[in-house]
Amino acid sequence: MKNVLLCATSMLALLTTGNVMAQRLDKMQWFNEPLSWEIKNPKTFVMQVPAKTDYWRITHYGFTVDDAPFYYATYGGEFEVKVKITGVYKTTFDQMGLMLRIDHKNWIKTGVEFVDGKQNVSTVVTHNTSDWSVIELDKAPKSLWIKTVRRLDAVEVFFSYDDKEYKMIRTCYLEDNCPVQVGLMGASPDGDGFEAVFEDFEVKQLPDLRRLEWAKE
Asked: Which residues contact 192 (CB under 8 A, 6 or more apart)?
């Protein structure tokens, strides 16, 4: 019941604020705004990720943190989102990428995470408690493309070296029929921060599968 009320409240906010159309970088919102960030052009966004910031809930470490920068717009229904990311990673656990967030207990973050001097494609899925899946990259690319697709109650996570061939690395649960905050995040849990560059952020609304099945019948 609590999640139903939350979704209803979020939908009301969505309808009244009009953020569903806020894909333009200059129309998005901050959660934990950093001291330094810049929209360099309509397709390029740069932020200085602050030191000692992260998103995590409970599992393994026993602590909860919710203080890293997240620049987002709110979307309902089903969608595909992708972005090109380039980070000046310096310290283990420096990370950047996409975040999909319903609230502080229900969210997904995915992108590159720097661990022991190597780049990894990382996904953290949180429903009250966090889990972490990670794939070490066989090379350290200058940039990487991250894509997620939300369909019904599932989110698929992909990465690509060239924005042409994508590899799926994760399918996970995210409550459907509920607006989602979608955007760009960075964190530096153990480091002094780093520069994160996001390019070609794109959200594409997808036709609702349930409605399409209903229409066929």
From this structure: 51, 90, 91
